[in-house]
Design goal:
It comes from Variovorax guangxiensis. With 410 residues, this protein is of the alpha+beta class. It contains 11 helices and 18 strands. The strands form 5 sheets. It has a 6-stranded mixed sheet. The structure holds zinc ion.
Amino acid sequence: MSHILSARGLELAQTLVRMNTVSANSNLELIGFVSDHLARLGVRSRLTYNADKTKANLFATLGAGKRNGIVVSGHTDTVPWDGQDWSVDPLSAMVQHWPTEGGGPVPVGPADELAALGSPRLYGRGAADMKGFIAIALANAEHFMESESPFAVHFAFSYDEEVGCFGVRELIADMKDQGVKPLACIIGEPTSMVPAIAHKGVYRYRCCVRGKEAHSSLTPQSVNAIEMAARVVGKVRDMAEGFEQNERRYEGFDVPFSTASVGQFHGGIADNVVPRDAAFHYEFRNLPTADAQQMQKEVLAYADRLEGPMKKVAPDAGFSFETICEVPSFLGSASDPITRLAQRLSGEERVTQVAFGTEAGLFKGAGIPTIVCGPGSITQAHQPDEFVTLEQLARCEAFLQGLAKTQTIA
Ligand SMILES: [Zn+2]
């Protein structure tokens, strides 16, 4: 079945892509744009902010007065493009066929004319991950407001997803405070419109080691921070090997067991100085059936055992741990009503599991049945020349228009 993307959907997607909402920046321009757009339709937005009020989540109910609602969720931030080799401006929101003869852009025109040419693409940071989805939701706001469906739709657009799903926690807490109890949640992360029912968790930590400095000829009077850090690094590595060897496989993931890895290591000032300080970052990507917090406890217990001998040499020597992010895994089910609804709306019989983290575990953890299903492919997300095809956006639009007509999710 082929679908035609609305001109308004494309225009809104281009508008959102042109706003720089890299996670390090404010997203208030985008949030302001969306809330103004909704305000013109008579829909009030509820904003929840980060501590210094530079970023906001937006929550809005379309079809107010209906008893229950379905959350349509997306994050507004994007990853940066520093150091990436782009052939187009990441903020250009250019629409073109790719590759083209001679590599040049093809004419930009009305979406339906372009669609007739094959599979044009909208290029730009966030096109697939996930401004395309937010734009199509916004472009169809009236469908949700005027629908005969017994359900309201809640737009839930968050900040700081890409750096640890921080914003949406505020949004979910505020939703609870307001007594909003959604029936289900659809997260439009790029799955090529195939409903995804599981992903791993991402738990990331920083470990700082304080030792005791000395001339390297006097090692017994010192505590070598790098060497102590290395032992904990070795522990993380041992755990990773343990997962690979012993963990019960969860098929459907690229790597069907939990993984652990160390991503950064810093320490030392000179060859002849026993280092006082070292620090490293590591992560666990746990299967939905494995407990990442338990993994971290195992690391803490191991470090604790190393500390006794360190403190005998220097009382203030030891380890300190900080949490960088804890994004819980997500596990839905092929038989969940929301999964079956997503299959019906997308015309897909398949379900999939994805390798990336999303906000799904947080919505599910709040008691809301959740599915991940959105336009574009994750293989384009975070990459140079990120794009989403207009065909994918059109399928997303058909999906959301179908949602507006949905009478039951059972
Ligand atoms: Zn994303």
